[in-house]
Description:
This protein is of the alpha/beta class and 531 residues long. The protein contains 18 helices and 20 strands. The strands form 3 sheets. It has a 7-stranded parallel beta sheet, with helices on both faces. Strands 14-15-16-17-18-20-19 form a 7-stranded mixed beta sheet, sandwiched between helices. A 6-stranded parallel beta sheet has the order 10-9-8-11-12-13, sandwiched between helices.
Amino acid sequence: MTMYNQSILILIRTDASLKIGSGHVMRCLSLAEALRDSGAEVRFVCRAHPGNLNDVIGKKEFKVHELSAPDLDEGREHYTEVAEDYTRWFNVTQEQDATETLDVLNGERPDWLIIDHYGLDCDWENRLRPHVRKLMVIDDLANRQHDCDLLLDQNYFRDGQNRYNGLVPLTCTQMLGPQYALLRPEFAEARKKLRRRTGEIRCVFVFFGGTDPENFTGCALAALSTPELVHLEVDVVLGKTNPNRASIERQVATRPNTNLYVQVKNIAELMVRADLALGAGGATTWERLCLGLPSIVTILSENQRKFSETLDKAGLQICLGNAKELSVSDLKFAVLKRLKTVESNRKQSGQCLEVVDGKGTGITKDMILKGIPVKQWGIRSASSADCEFYWHWVNDQDVRQSAFNSEPISWEDHQEWFKNKLNDPSTTLFLAESQFGPIGQVRFEKSGDHFVIDYSIGRQFRGLGLGERLLTKGIESFKNTQGFTLVGEVKEENQASMKIFQNLGFREISHSPQLKKKTRRFQLQLSEITR
């Protein structure tokens, strides 16, 4: 176990309910456990909806700040009659929810606030932004704006890399695709021991989510209990909040070769031994793909539709459409068809394994606690296309506080300044970037017989020791073409930048006629660099 930072505090705002389901909480728990195992303190903020999983989170030994259950009739005038009006999912306004979440903070400023909730958007995030250092959003919908530093969408889409254009800040780091699926470690471990699937079907895995209030589980069991399918072995999984447990238990008791599991801890093992899955197009999709389990899925809610249908077209699962429109006969004939398509089942299994490898939680944890590995960085000269990135970075609240002139810079003034600097032979602008986009910038500006250094790094990468590495990369690139003294000027209260310059071998100049009041000045000859 690698310990990154034992003092880091992370707050997760998410919910589960009979309407919302359990997927948001379960994937957040996967990430929370990985973060805690690496030394972070993680707390949850969850509302006490009917069917919540707050006790499940608590049993995992996480502190849960429980927001009160809403009056279901309260605030109806705030909600419109729209099919995808997810604010109905928690029946309070975003303003009220933000106020209650701020009360939970009680003056603390978490290092990260992670939001996984369809009912929250940039209005809520803007209210919390001043009270947290960094903000991450986990989303599936790409249907609303977010004010965040890091966004994760684990879904599979043909146009995935463009899904959030115009919906998140330009400087937001986006992790898009099922390679970042937030799965528990058991799936990566089970994958290592996975037998090669032949395509023949003997055992069926049934799971329609943690709540399944409309009892699609019962419908699937009815289909599997018909004479043509009763020979199959069946494993049925229910969440602890499933309201139809009693009737399902009766169905299981009357069907041979059928096992029932409630709120299981070994769901990966059940998927490994199965040959076919019947379930919903929700979060379990990525677990099935990780283990190469051929699947027949139904759509339980509108947010599952697009990626479920896209996976179907890609040959990664069979999607039967809206669950409410399907009959027992529809499910029966779908399974009968899969019994006959052995080669297609085998092929689908192999394709699934290529899409999800079970490492997404670890990658996300490292992005939060370590940032992007320096070996994945590149550094290049800035161009006119980078103007807006520089503007966002220079106007960041923390950057303005560290600057000698703390006033915000207008877009018009910045455009003129940036154009002049690009065309100024005495100024060199570098931009560091990775596969996730720009990371930060380093500027070298000639002043007499030396060059003054200016640098900044994206908010999501601060506090991770990456500023020093950014500056090192910039100096190394600059050293190849220049041979002058480097100078860094820092406000006295900017302890982090002073430490970076000192670590890089800069010597402080105690007396200088050009030194501004309350300013520290550091100097380094390029010939002194040994890195």
